[in-house]
Design goal:
With 245 residues, the protein is of the alpha/beta class. 43% of the residues lie in helices and 18% in strands. The chain has a seven-stranded mixed beta sheet with strand order 3-2-1-4-8-6-9, with helices on both faces. Strand 1, helix 1 and strand 2 form a beta-alpha-beta unit. Helix 9 packs antiparallel against helix 10. The radius of gyration is 18 Å and the shape is globular. The relative contact order is 0.15.
Length: 245
């Protein structure tokens, strides 16, 4: 008899064949460490119209693949969640790795019944002075705002109740999801929570390409054009988040 998985881990992916091996290796380790058993975790790669071997490689590693033609990170995340069977849906970017205790930490976070959505938190795969100062600025903002990154997780029923990710957004869809789930959770006195001791690791490939200080140079320009010319802002944002590879 087939068992319903407890977790569905969704990985949105556009031309990520080079990065998936290290992520899926870390997922295999985390599945092996999960006290509920590896079979209780399904892995879904949401293939966002890739032109490389992303889908083929994902299938070769035993992942389920959700083809998503609309080039949008929000659409990719929703496409993966749409075929999920798990009670809990989790999301992680393809250029990341997860901690060996990820699924145990998420279970511990959600099992108290007080959390509507949570995150593991994240650290960079390398440090430099510029990256350190970026983290120094960003970390207090995430704590004050009650948000975080890394593996994002919630019950699938709550995800479906709010309609998933907002596909009208080309970026910052993850922040919007957290905001909407936190609002949804207030109805039942649930809040945002952080899974303890399970930081994900994310690649610094954007910093490798644009420079370790680029958040202090490029991002203010995008913010400026948001106020002056939203069309130009959209072009710059798309160039950074969608047309960069």
């Amino acid at each position: 008899m087939d068992l319903t998985p407890r977790f569905s881990l969704v990985i949105p992916a556009y031309n990520e064949a080079a990065w998936l091996p290290q992520l899926l290796d870390s997922v295999d380790i985390a599945r092996a460490h999960y006290r509920g058993g590896a079979d209780m975790i399904e892995v879904i790669v949401a293939d966002n119209d890739s032109t490389d071997a992303t889908a083929v490689y994902a299938l070769s590693r035993g992942c389920r693949v959700a083809p998503v033609a609309k080039r949008s990170i929000a659409a990719a995340r929703n496409g993966g969640a749409a075929i999920a069977h798990g009670e809990i849906v989790c999301f992680i970017d393809a250029d990341s790795t997860i901690h060996a205790q990820t699924f145990n930490a998420i279970s511990d976070c959600l099992d108290n019944g007080k959390i509507v959505v949570g995150a593991t938190g994240v650290r960079p795969d390398r440090w430099s002075v510029g990256i350190f100062f970026t983290w120094l600025v960003a970390t207090p903002i995430t704590w004050i705002a009650g948000v975080d990154a890394g593996v994002i997780f919630c019950y699938r029923r709550d995800f479906e109740a709010i309609g998933g990710y907002d596909e009208t957004l080309r970026y910052a869809e993850d922040i919007q999801l957290l905001r909407m789930l936190k609002q949804h959770g207030r109805k039942t006195s649930r809040r945002f929570g952080r899974a303890k001791n399970a930081l994900a690791i994310t690649s610094m490939r954007k910093y490798d390409k644009h420079g370790d200080w680029h958040y202090f140079t490029l991002m203010p320009r995008i913010g400026f054009w948001m106020l002056i010319d939203k069309t130009k802002m959209q072009r710059q944002a798309d160039a950074y988040w969608y047309n960069d590879r």
